[in-house]
Amino acid sequence: MTSGDLAAPVLDYPGRTERASRSPTPTFEQAAERCVTERQRDPDTAWTRQTEVQHRATFRAFAEHIKNKPIGAVTRGDIAGWLAALRTSARTVNRHAGALVTLFRWARTVGLIDGKNPAEGQRRRESATRKRHPFTSAELLTLLEACSSAARRQAELDAASRPEVKPRRHTVATALPWLVWLGAYTGARLNELCGLRAQDVRETDGITFLDLVDHGRRLKTPAAARRVPVHSELLAIGLREYVAAVPRSGYLFPGLKPGGPDGKRSWQATKHFTRLRRRLGLTRPGLVFHSLRNTVATALHEAGVPEVEAAALLGHELRTMSYGLYSGGLSLVRLRAAVECIRYPAELTDRPASRKTPLYPAK
Predict the structure, then answer these.
(1) Secondary structure, 3-state, 158-211
(2) Which terminus of the chain has a smaller tally of CB atoms within 10 A, N or C?
(3) Which CATH superfamily does the domain covering 22-126 fall into?
(4) Does an H or E element contain 212, and which?
């Protein structure tokens, strides 16, 4: 017997056959397609249409850059080099980086890669001008007065400052004044307000509130499902009468139509608000509709409202064990007290007498 006749012994042990028969590592494109398919299959985790389109574009572009190598062979250097070569804003670069972080996190979870996520820590510092800022009192006065005066001209109302209560025809133009006033006194996101149905304005124990729950519409986070009491200023300008004049089974703002990649009802309202803001000269960097949310948060903060109550109104997550995990939430009575702390200069509403004594001591 020669040495060539000797064969190394084949050791049999648990798991050997499974590892030996494991399919080869998929290419980046194959892995990306599988990730998207699995993500979109579950309604609870599915991306919006716009996010899906953006992520797919990121994956295609990066796959081309790395010549579609196996996903397990992608390095931090591959990602850093691609991001550095992009001729675009830091915000867009960070969107691409975020998409890759999501993909490689999924790939690690399902066992396609080992070790650290190569896309982590690749974000760029964004310009301070991208930060959203609250409106100043003067800016807010300009904005609310514009919405009110426009409504007065359309409906030939008296001197009372209010959006149109019973528009002859519902349009984006008749919805926008209400959206601005609601944003200024609830801090709700524009898409949340645009998606409201008339039946979402409810009343319990004499407290009128917006029921921002998931009735077939996508909420940004689980904490976004909440009840927000309606501020007395909104009732004073006729919100209850407006709601009564809208068919109960329909949208609160029927003049808004879905638009954009995601079919969002806020699509047209966003564009109309931007045009209004620019026409009013409110062009300071960081001012958008979402700035009303910042404005409300600032008003609550200045009034000394506890953060747990502000978070409940704004739909922010509480990352604490006692309140965030175990609490059943605050009562409408307590939330109404917090909402009424949202106060702006009296000239905004021409109703100085409606100003109430603060329910919380100012800081």
Answers:
(1) CCCCCCCCCCCCCCHHHHHHHHHHHHHHHCCCHHHHHCCEHHHEEEECCEEEEE
(2) N
(3) Tyrosine recombinase, N-terminal domain (1.10.150.130)
(4) strand 207-212
Closest CA to 354 of 362, 363, 3, 343: 343
Query: Which two tokens mark 271?
Result: 């564009």
Encoding tokens for residue 152?
């007065």
d(CA 131, CA 287): 9
- Element housing 28 (H / E): helix 28-41
Look at residue 325 and give its three-state secondary structure.
helix
Residues constituting the chain: 363
- Token duo for residue 56: 């797919």
pTM for the model: 0.69
Q: Which own/partner contact pairs does 18-24 have at CB distance under 8 Å and 24+ positions apart?
A: 24/70
What number of other Cβ atoms are within 10 A of residue 352's Cβ? Answer: 9
DSSP element (H, E) containing 229: strand 226-229
| Side chain identity, residue 144 | L
Residue of 197, 200, 154, 196 whose CA lies nearest to 174: 154
CATH code assigned to 137-354: 1.10.443.10
- What Å distances lie between residue 83 and 97, 122, 129, CA to CA? 8, 8, 21
Domain positions in the chain are 22-126, 137-354
Residues 6+ apart with CB under 8 A from 29: 59, 60, 63, 68
